[in-house]
From TrEMBL:
Membrane-crossing residue ranges in chain numbering: 248-270
Gene3D superfamilies (UniProt xref): Immunoglobulins (2.60.40.10)
Protein name (record): T-lymphocyte activation antigen CD86
Organism per entry: Pteropus vampyrus (Large flying fox)
GN (gene name): CD86
Protein function: Receptor involved in the costimulatory signal essential for T-lymphocyte proliferation and interleukin-2 production, by binding CD28 or CTLA-4. May play a critical role in the early events of T-cell activation and costimulation of naive T-cells, such as deciding between immunity and anergy that is made by T-cells within 24 hours after activation. Also involved in the regulation of B cells function, plays a role in regulating the level of IgG(1) produced. Upon CD40 engagement, activates NF-kappa-B signaling pathway via phospholipase C and protein kinase C activation.
Length: 332
């Protein structure tokens, strides 16, 4: 029984050692598109063998050589053209750096270390690693197609480009003061046939309430391991409540009529005064204002006061109209 147990233990240990030696345990490695990725080898060189006695090389899953170090010297002869000039050996970590990583570089790589001794080449270490490549999607961007006048319907498009892998979800989020609504929309996905990167977009046609301020965001959820990307908000400000145009018009016209009648009346009075100078003239023109004139001024002042305080928007509207900025028929 004891013998049996120890044999099993031994075989287990041997199996694990064999596994490690064969490199069946593979390392995971991650790199960003167009940047540098590491292909590890995890060689400890416990025997302190000089590089001059070693042959070190990496190959991909199709057995194409990425890099070879032959007795301490780079040997480009065996390197496949697609890896020429793209790899460098990191002697401190016994790792290979692969530059300008492409999505197509995703895959399994193996590193081999042989000892070139008197008896020829002896394999002393080998390991495989899985390289995955990521590309960060650009910040999503909302584009509004031309909004037709007086329409509460807007067409939204949001896009984000050059990411990898395929994102999980993209949506619009509408936020008002007291509500948040998410619109899940089916993504349009385009894959670049050269870089393999994805461009994604969504479109939505919605009606927004003109009484409330609305902020629209576009949210992209890339791969589950990556963080959400959120666009800049697109804000739609509430339209101020609209006064009915006929009221504006009536008040404005009345005011104008009143003021012109007053003006006319005052003019007439002044003319008459000039023609027949009476005793009141000596009493001090500057002090005494004719009562009709006074009345007119007071009424226009009160009218202006009333329109200002009772209907502040009406007043601005009217004054803007009077200044010729807006037409009284313009509803906005
Ligand atoms: C790759 O990176 C270089 C600079 O390192 C940059 O000029 C180039 O535009 C990038 N290419 C892509 C496709 O992102
Ligand atoms: C390894 O060997 C080199 C010479 O080849 C020697 O200089 C160095 O001290 C050795 N290091 C260890 C840890 O034995
Ligand atoms: C990608 O995004 C992550 C975090 O979201 C960041 O840490 C990383 O530096 C970014 N990489 C590139 C190449 O932009
Ligand atoms: C909006 O309309 C203007 C002119 O009417 C046009 O030049 C512009 O391209 C349009 N924009 C969109 C996003 O349709
Ligand atoms: C919005 O899209 C709908 C169809 O989805 C179209 O009928 C409408 O004319 C578009 N409106 C604008 C302002 O682009
Ligand atoms: C949000 O609040 C406003 C008042 O601030 C209220 O009139 C409206 O009904 C509320 N809407 C919802 C969906 O609760
Ligand atoms: C890749 O896209 C280009 C246009 O961007 C097209 O001309 C070419 O035929 C495409 N190649 C393949 C293999 O689909
Ligand atoms: C909308 O926002 C503006 C400021 O951006 C604020 O002055 C206004 O009161 C808001 N309107 C509503 C209806 O919340």
């Amino acid at each position: 029984m004891g013998i049996c147990d120890s044999t099993m233990e031994l075989s287990k240990t041997l199996f694990v050692v064999a596994l490690l030696l064969s490199g069946a345990a593979s390392m995971k490695s991650q790199a960003y598109f167009n940047e540098t990725g590491d292909l590890p080898c995890h060689f400890t060189n416990s025997q302190n063998i000089s590089l001059d006695e070693l042959v070190v090389f990496w190959q991909n899953q199709d057995k194409l050589v990425l890099y070879e170090l032959y007795k301490g010297e780079e040997n480009p002869q065996n390197v496949h053209p697609k890896y020429k000039g793209r790899a460098s050996f990191d002697q401190n970590n016994w790792a290979l750096q692969l530059h300008n990583v492409q999505i197509k570089d995703t895959g399994t790589y193996q590193c081999f270390i042989h000892h070139k001794g008197p008896q020829g080449l002896v394999s002393i270490h080998q390991m495989s690693s899985d390289l995955s490549v990521l590309a960060n999607f650009s910040q999503p961007k909302i584009i509004i197609s031309n909004r037709t006048e007086n329409s509460d319907t807007i067409n939204l498009t949001c896009s984000s480009i050059q990411g990898y892998p395929k994102p999980k979800k993209m949506s619009f989020v509408l936020k008002t003061k007291n509500s948040t609504t998410e619109y899940d929309v089916i993504m349009n996905i385009l894959q670049d046939n050269f870089t393999d990167l994805y461009d994604v977009s969504i479109s939505l046609s919605i009606s927004v309430s003109p009484e409330r301020n609305v902020s629209i965001f576009c949210v992209l959820q890339p791969d589950s391991t990556q963080t959400q990307l959120v666009s800049q908000p697109y804000n739609i400000d509430a339209k101020p409540p609209m006064p009915t145009p006929d009221r504006v018009l009536t008040v404005a016209l009345l005011l104008l009529l009143f003021m012109s009648v007053c003006g006319l009346f005052v003019l007439m009075l002044m003319k008459r005064k000039r023609k027949q100078p009476g005793p009141s003239r000596e009493c001090g023109e500057s002090v005494l204002v004719p009562s009709a004139e006074r009345h007119c001024v007071a009424t226009s002042l009160s009218a202006a006061f009333w329109s200002l305080f009772a209907q502040p928007r009406l007043a601005t509207k009217t004054s803007r109209w009077l200044e010729g900025e807006v037409s009284p028929l313009d509803p906005t």
